Structures are given as C-alpha cells and as structure tokens.
C-alpha cells in the first residue's frame, strides 16, 4: 500500500507539467468557450446570460452561412487535389535516383517549411497586377490580366493553388514513405506478366497505398477546415467578405466587432463541424478500394 | 521493340517531372533574386533571371527602417521556449504513460488522444481572454503559453518508450536507480534521435506560427518576425524588393534548420503523422 501511493506521487511529478498546462491552457479555455456562447459578452469583460440566442442568430446570419460555404468551397478545392497531386509527385520522385531525386524532392518540399507570411509575400509578388511575372502567363493563356486575389471568381481557386504549392511537400513525404513499403517484387512479377504502367498503378500501387491516402485525406480535411492565415493575408486591403472563412469570421466577430460571446459561438460551431466531419470521414474511409 | 518503347515513355516522364519541379521551385528563386535587384529593375517587365546590377539595398533598407532586429529576438525567444517546454513536458508525460502504473493513467491517455479533436483555432477567443487576465497581452509569455498544447509529442514519446526493452529498466532497478535516474540516464539518452526530430519540427512550427502571435502581439516591439513582416507597409515606390527581403530574412532560420537537419525533419513529419520511421 505504501509503495503504491509513492508510485502515484512519482508519476504525478512526471505528468504534472503537461497536465497543468493542459488544464489551464486547453480544458479551461474549452469549457469557458462553451459558457461564453450563452452570453452577450464583449471580447474582454462580462456579459449577460442570453440562453440560446447566439445559436439562433447563427442560423439567420447570412455572413456566417457564407463563411461556412466559403470554408466548404476551400476544402473542396484543396483536400482532394492536394492529396492526389501529392501521390503523383511522390511517384515521380520515387522513380528518380541520386541528385536528381534530391533536387526534385527539395523543389516540392521546400515551400512547406516556410512561414505563411513568406508564402504570402512571394505570391503577392508573383501575381501582382502590374509587375507580377505570373500575369504574363495569364495574359498568354487567358487573354487578360486579373487581380486574382481581389477577383470574386479567381480568389478562392488561386488561394487553394497557393495552399497546395505551399503544403504539398508534407503529403509527398508521407506518400514516398508509403511507396517504399510496397515490395518491388510485386512490380517485377507483374512486369513479367506483361502489366503496363497503368495496370501496375491500378492493381498494385493504388490499393496498397490506400491506408496512406486515407491518412492524408483525413489530415488535409481537418487542416483545411481551420484555414485562416493565407486567406487573411492574401486578401488584406481587398474585399474580405467574398472569401471570408470560418476562423476569419471568429476573428471578425470577436476581435474586430468586439462580440466575444457570438465569436465563441462561431468557434464552437467550427469545433462541432470538425468533430462531425472527422467521424463521418473515418467511417467512409474505413472502406478499402478493391 | 517493346523495351525501347517503355524506355521512351520513362524518359518522357522524367522530363515532365523535371519541368514540374523547376516550375514548382521557380517562385522561391524569383523571390530571392528580386531582393537583389534595384527598384527600377524590379519594375521592368519580362523574365530577367539575373539582376543587371546586383544590390543589397533592399536588405539594408529593411534592416535600418524596420524593427526586424527586435522581431528576430522575439521570435528566437518564443520559438526556443516553446520548443524546450513542449519537448520536456511531452517526454516526461510520455514516460509516465509508458512506464509507470498510476491512478488515472488510462483516463489521461484517452484525454490526450481526444484532444486531437479540438481545433486550437477555435480557442482563440478564450485564449485571448485568459492571456489578458494574466496581463500577458504583448508579452513573450503570452505568445508562448497557448502554443504549449501539442499532444502528439506525448504520443510519439510514449510509443518510443514502449519499445525500449524492459531489461534495461529492471537492471537499473536492481542497481537501486529511481524513476528519475531511469528516465534521464536510460530512456531519454536512448531516444535522442526522437528528441532532436521533435525539437526541430516544434521549433519550425513555433517560428512559423501566425494566427496566435498575430492576435496577441499588437505592438511593434513584441511581434514575432513572422507577424512583423506582414506589417511592413510603404506608401511610395515599388516595395516588392524590400518586402521580399524582409520575407527572406524571416525564412532564413527555418530554411537553414531544414537544410542542416533534413533527415530529422523528414523523420519528425512521419512521426507526427503516426508513421513510425
């Protein structure tokens, strides 16, 4: 009995730093967020208890619904393209050897380690209406220059593209690890049977890489639902409402309009969406392709 | 005949791969080379792959007219603190979960796993309220604290400590070592590789963090470099060379960290995604 309680004390000393940080910086803020959703509190300071009014307001708030829509649109534009392109790039890297392979992998991976504000500065410059080098390409293929991040139609797809450019390295790395786990014997045997590239991909690579694909899809989905940084930065000074996403709407309500209670409600709805979507996706992805 | 045909297709794929890689890396090259051009050249149309006149003017401008030096100090202090604290807390907690039997162990483990669900971004409102109650708005500690919750570090450590053979532990026990000795002398040194990998990726993540540092530091003096460089606004001239020079300076530490520790960064990314490499 005596040693048992001593063991507990030793363990307590080990877990204390994490548990204390967790309680103060995670659990408490989470509980407090939920309580805030029932009040009309400003960002700093107390507010009145108003029951479910914030939630009722949520469903009649056009700007909120449009933020949900924009977030969904951004998810649609990024998650699957980023995953599939990640697989394609990984297969491309995997075919190469030596220095060529290192160069190609670095080209795909380097953007991923950059801070978002650097990515923003790079693409603001690339796409500048007057001086941007990429505007030449637009001119050539589309026929005219477009201020892409301020254009209602172009903004979201362009920001999705920038996001893919920035983050694909992560997916490429995971896929390369997955591809290296597939035994070369399978490919050799199928080559002897005369299988072409496409058949090898369809019947060996794709089914065997599926667990990694499912993992990447899950990580991507949750990540992109929480999008804020690059959209906020790339639309600085423009019309932000066209491309307002959920986290940005939390920021707007709580920090710009000083509505802490309502901002917390939007935040809680994001939390709910992420939980529901991850459960649904987990169910959907458990199925393996034939 | 058939062999020749396959080889041709293979070469074509290699060429396409190279072309895509070059296009992919081009914005990086273009950004860096722009910082080395004088203003009038930046505004010239066309693809001028090298500056006609090389200049470091954009860099001296950024270094002398912005507080980038101060931002750098802030970033270093914040990123190093976050790294040390996150890795230390994660290792200790991961060790307890892996090696010690204590009340509430299972509950703690499931709490750690469940916390993956809650998006940190959803907590910005209450984090801000909390930090302002602590009087930590516009302070280093205020930037650091909300970044300390990284449950994946605990999970990775637990996995690695799980796979250390029990013999080491029992031998040390027989020699009279206590848990702290076992942790610091055996489990931690045996897993230096994991610690290095986690430390590097945590450092890169903390250096790159945007949303929270952006919200909590509103004064010019307390910003991290990642936030600071988005605030540089000029009202005259073509400012791209200067903006990008600031961006290059901001990216330098993480770029160097990556180039020096490439293998570790890769390993850490796999680990944090749940692939034990």
From TrEMBL, chain A:
Entry keyword Transmembrane: yes
Keywords tagged on the record: Cell membrane, Membrane, Sugar transport, Transmembrane, Transmembrane helix, Transport
Stored InterPro entries: ABC_transporter_permease, MetI-like, MetI-like_sf
Domain called ABC transmembrane type-1: residue spans: 68-283
CDD domains xref list: TM_PBP2
Membrane topology label: Multi-pass membrane protein
Transmembrane segments: 9-28, 72-91, 103-123, 158-182, 203-225, 263-284
Family membership: Belongs to the binding-protein-dependent transport system permease family.
This protein's name: Multiple sugar transport system permease protein
Species whose genome carries this gene: Kaistia defluvii
